[in-house]
Amino acid sequence: MTVHIPFQNSYSALPDSFFARVAPTPVAAPRLIKLNRPLALQLGLDPDLLETPEGAEILAGKTVPSGADPIAMAYAGHQFGNFVPQLGDGRAILLGEVIDRHGLRRDIQLKGSGPTPFSRRGDGRAALGPVLREYIVSEAMFALGIPTTRSLAAVVTGEQVFRETALPGAVLTRVASSHIRVGTFQFFAVRRDTEAVRRLADHVIARHYPELLNAERTYHGLLGAVVARQAELVARWLLVGFIHGVMNTDNSSISGETIDYGPCAFMDAYNPSQVFSSIDEMGRYAYANQPRIALWNLTRLAECLLPLFGDDQDKAVAEAQDILGAFSETFSAAYQAGLRRKVGLFTEREGDEALIQDLLDAMAKNQADFTLTFRKLAADDARSEFMDPAGFDEWAGRWHARIALEPQTAVERQAAMHAVNPLFIPRNHRVEAVIQAAVNDDDYAPFDELVKVLAKPFEEQPEYAAYADPPLPDQRVLQTFCGT
Ligand code: AMP
Ligand code: MG
């Protein structure tokens, strides 16, 4: 039985300068670690066939399925503020696109499937640890309801990759609405190839923003739409304590999905200046800096689109500034509305913002666990998260007075709060433990269990209650690594 994937490729039909055609490099002994069966079904693929040895070969890049048109996409990007005119898929190959059960076009990409013309000095490979981390965190984000790329499968290759030491090699099958980034626009803009920028913009509009097709000032509309989606995305990150870690323009998706899970992490104790990434020495991508950085990245996108705005470039700049100006309002509205839901407010009153800010300030001062404080607040049980519970009591008094003005019952409020405040997040120490078991002992049971628990982040799962716990002092993970 051969595995058939009904590809309908559109990106590889764009001009040659957009990508390089390159096949995955066959690997020694592919073995399937995990298949995301519900996602396979959603994509119209047969999970049983993907679980056969031939399926594992496809997911490892050893066999290229018929209808695939494998390419490495070209892109540029600002990395930590420094512009690199050519990055591109150095360790990822897009097999092709499928139309899913909802009629949406989805990219199917292999990450870690061998070198491409964009690999520079890299080996085009991925180590098992980062592959498992991306699988866990991207699927956790999906379960939390946050726009994200997905993970269809993880396979080990039977080969070693060499980082500081020899590590098991692996391939992640990543699914995305598209892999088009701010950096994809930058690739053409820096080459002053306005026709390519226009071609890319038209492709993006048809694919992600079809409502703009018949609008006036389509390209202005495109910038506005991306600004809105990014503003809402970053608000969602902050509301769950997520730190992306490498918000370079090449890791900033035009579709508004979270993409590129490298040194990302969820924070335990609330700390607005929290950084985990070992390479983020200046704290550029710290938790609370993320909205500012998203706007910075969007400003780079705006620069790329200016030639499409019209011949009068002074006017174009003014228009772009206007559109970018909407970011902070959209972000604040999404963030404040989310915070209100987190503390159980259904209505909006003067003083709410200050009340909530006072809670966040007290949490920071008391190193309160971000996730558990909000989760426990529903049962008015958050005081134990504070080093100085008296500080919480003062705030709780004001909160009680405020929620007494809401028409909802306590039961309704609790249900609403539980639906937005997760109990289970991918805590760093859990992710690390799972990776250690897989890498050192070839034991994937902890990985399977963590993935299972995180698929229902808002539900009490009494048998897995320990997964909600913050790390003990000696379990704390202080740094995360790109690990490419
Ligand atoms: P990232 O840190 O994942 O955003 O990657 C930044 C750039 O480095 C992209 O162009 C990647 O394709 C490239 N890259 C990262 N790791 C490797 C690798 N192992 N081999 C080749 N290219 C890589
Ligand atoms: Mg990247």
From TrEMBL:
GO molecular function terms attached to this record: AMPylase activity; ATP binding; magnesium ion binding; manganese ion binding
Keywords, alphabetical: ATP-binding, Magnesium, Manganese, Metal-binding, Nucleotide-binding, Nucleotidyltransferase, Transferase
Catalytic activity: L-tyrosyl-[protein] + UTP = O-(5'-uridylyl)-L-tyrosyl-[protein] + diphosphate; L-seryl-[protein] + ATP = 3-O-(5'-adenylyl)-L-seryl-[protein] + diphosphate; L-histidyl-[protein] + UTP = N(tele)-(5'-uridylyl)-L-histidyl-[protein] + diphosphate; L-tyrosyl-[protein] + ATP = O-(5'-adenylyl)-L-tyrosyl-[protein] + diphosphate
Enzyme Commission numbers on file: 2.7.7.-, 2.7.7.108
Claim: Magnesium is one of the keywords in the record: yes
EC class name: transferase
Binding site for ATP: G88, G90, R91, K111, D123, G124, R174, R181, D260
Family according to the record: Belongs to the SELO family.
Protein name per the record: Protein nucleotidyltransferase YdiU
Lineage: Bacteria, Pseudomonadati, Pseudomonadota, Alphaproteobacteria, Hyphomicrobiales
